């Protein structure tokens, strides 16, 4: 929520803005720019709830230009990854991409031609052609004429999908890693953890699954887990339709800005998965919050350098003096540095005053709220608000991290 108001200093007006959050568009909707009130006045105070930023038409990035016909099949980065992970030469990687593009186009037409006899399809790396499964051999010639290879199977894709949907209504034991439709096997594949395959619960689930349709059992070495990763300073998180940034990992969660969400609010991680809950939040008066994290996430004593520098390990929270260099990591403007300009400052946002803030010459923008301020390897605080931007410059304030740790009885996660 971008917040705006006026702030007039004793020596005259001074523009300031708080970095609140970035609002996300509803599904299928568009993002609208929220125009700050009193924008004609020079003393403009915007909450830098650099949690979620309000983006709009005027400031939106232009749409990508269509690729020209002569453009390469893929970026150098993608080609490098194909060579590294699939063991392809540069020439074979480009050929593979062209073949996959052609196969995708053929598959769409072949699916329509197959109609109800369509049994699924897959790309064959050896022939570099699409293979279409059919329950009706009479359709083979028509599908082959489109440029596809064919295979006659017993079950249609629709029948397999129905069988899989019936499995989705069952409760599976932990020894079952998952299930999916495999067109190459013309079956629903139930994957079980190898060490759990013969347990009564797994055997009962497989037996029940086989009553719902064609089932093949596969094995996995271990059970699946999420790759949500750790709570890393500067990374984004989401509360409702607002994006903010993680400040610092603490044992049990992370600290961030209070204006990013109230106590009890649910938090989603960078990948959209459930991440945690605001256990405490204070704003105005203060601008800090503590988020506890769910299983599948873990804390990491790291602040992102976003490629500008190597990621920084956090080794403590010794307070840097005025004049010291300091850097900030946030999910919108990434990594920026400056100096400490003042301490124990009261900042009067439109929602009310926030006390004991530290002022810096570091820039920030919407969506950076809550992000990390660090000096060397020492945690300093979480981004609150400021004025200006990272194109023309500005100043920001942060809530000192030691105050947050003391308020909630937290322990900073250090390396």
What does the model show?
It is a single chain. The chain has 6 helices and 28 strands. The chain is an alpha+beta fold. It has 3 domains: 223 residues, Trypsin-like serine proteases (Thrombin, subunit H), CATH 2.40.10.10; 63 residues, GMP Synthetase, Chain A, domain 3 (2-Layer Sandwich), CATH 3.30.300; 63 residues, GMP Synthetase, Chain A, domain 3, CATH 3.30.300. The protein has a 6-stranded antiparallel β-barrel with strand order 23-24-25-28-27-26. A 5-stranded antiparallel beta sheet has the order 16-17-20-19-18, covered by helices on one side. The two termini are 34 Å apart. The N terminus is likely disordered.
What is the strand and helix layout of this fold?
Elements: E1 3-6, E2 8-9, E3 12-13, E4 16-19, E5 22-23, E6 44-49, H1 76-86, H2 90-114, E7 118-124, E8 129-134, H3 140-144, E9 149-152, H4 157-167, E10 176-182, E11 187-193, H5 200-210, E12 215-220, E13 230-233, E14 236-239, E15 242-245, E16 248-250, E17 253-256, E18 266-268, E19 274-282, E20 288-293, E21 298-303, E22 312-313, E23 325-330, E24 334-349, E25 352-360, E26 372-375, E27 378-389, E28 393-400, H6 401-408
Parallel strand pairs: 4-6, 8-9, 11-12, 13-21
Antiparallel strand pairs: 1-6, 2-3, 4-27, 5-15, 7-8, 10-11, 14-15, 16-17, 17-20, 18-19, 19-20, 21-22, 23-24, 23-26, 24-25, 25-28, 26-27, 27-28
Total number of strands = 28
Report Rg. Answer: 27 Å
Arithmetic mean pLDDT: 80
Could you tell me the CATH topology label of the largest domain: Thrombin, subunit H
Quickly give the CATH architecture of the largest domain: Beta Barrel
The biggest sheet, with number of strands, parallel, antiparallel or mixed sense and barrel status, is: 6 strands, antiparallel, barrel
Q: Helical element count?
A: 6
| Estimated share of beta-strand residues | 35-45%
Organism: Streptomyces clavuligerus
Disulfide bonds: 244-260, 327-337, 363-390
Keywords: Disulfide bond, Hydrolase, Plasmid, Protease, Serine protease, Signal, Zymogen
Protein name: Putative secreted serine protease
């Amino acid at each position: 929520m971008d917040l705006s108001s006026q702030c007039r200093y004793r020596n005259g007006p001074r523009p300031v803005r708080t970095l609140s959050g970035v609002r996300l568009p509803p599904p299928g909707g568009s993002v609208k720019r929220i125009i700050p009130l009193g924008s004609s006045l020079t003393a403009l105070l915007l909450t830098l709830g650099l949690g979620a930023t309000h983006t709009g038409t005027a400031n939106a990035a232009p749409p990508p230009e269509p690729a020209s016909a002569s453009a390469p099949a893929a970026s150098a980065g993608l080609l490098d990854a194909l060579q590294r992970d699939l063991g392809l030469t540069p020439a074979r990687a480009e050929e593979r991409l062209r073949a996959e593009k052609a196969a995708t186009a053929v598959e769409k037409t072949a699916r329509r031609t197959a109609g109800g006899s369509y049994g699924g399809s897959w790309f064959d790396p050896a022939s570099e052609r699409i293979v279409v499964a059919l329950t009706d051999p009479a359709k083979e010639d028509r599908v082959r004429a489109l440029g596809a290879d064919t295979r006659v199977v017993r079950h249609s894709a629709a029948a397999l999908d129905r069988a899989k949907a019936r499995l989705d209504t069952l409760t599976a034991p932990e020894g079952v890693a998952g299930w999916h439709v495999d067109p190459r096997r013309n079956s629903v594949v139930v994957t079980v953890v190898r060490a759990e395959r013969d347990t009564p619960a797994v055997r009962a689930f497989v037996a029940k699954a086989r009553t719902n349709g064609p089932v093949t059992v596969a094995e996995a070495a271990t059970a699946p887990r999420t790759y949500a990763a750790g709570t890393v300073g500067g990374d984004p998180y989401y509360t409702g339709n607002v994006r903010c940034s993680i400040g610092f990992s603490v044992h049990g969660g992370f600290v961030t800005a209070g204006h990013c969400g109230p106590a009890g609010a649910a938090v989603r991680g960078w990948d959209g998965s459930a991440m945690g809950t605001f256990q405490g939040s204070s704003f105005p008066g203060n601008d800090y919050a503590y988020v506890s994290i769910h299983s599948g996430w873990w804390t990491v004593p790291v602040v992102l350098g976003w490629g500008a520098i190597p990621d920084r390990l956090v080794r403590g929270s010794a307070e840097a003096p005025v004049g010291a260099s300091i850097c900030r990591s946030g999910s919108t403007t990434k990594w920026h540095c400056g100096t400490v300009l003042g301490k124990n400052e009261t900042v009067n946002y439109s929602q009310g005053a926030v006390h004991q803030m530290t002022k810096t010459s570091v820039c920030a923008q919407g969506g950076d709220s809550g992000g990390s301020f660090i000096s060397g390897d020492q945690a300093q605080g979480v981004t609150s608000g400021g004025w200006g931007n990272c194109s023309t410059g500005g100043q920001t304030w942060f809530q000192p991290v030691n105050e947050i740790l003391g308020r909630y009885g937290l322990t900073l996660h250090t390396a």
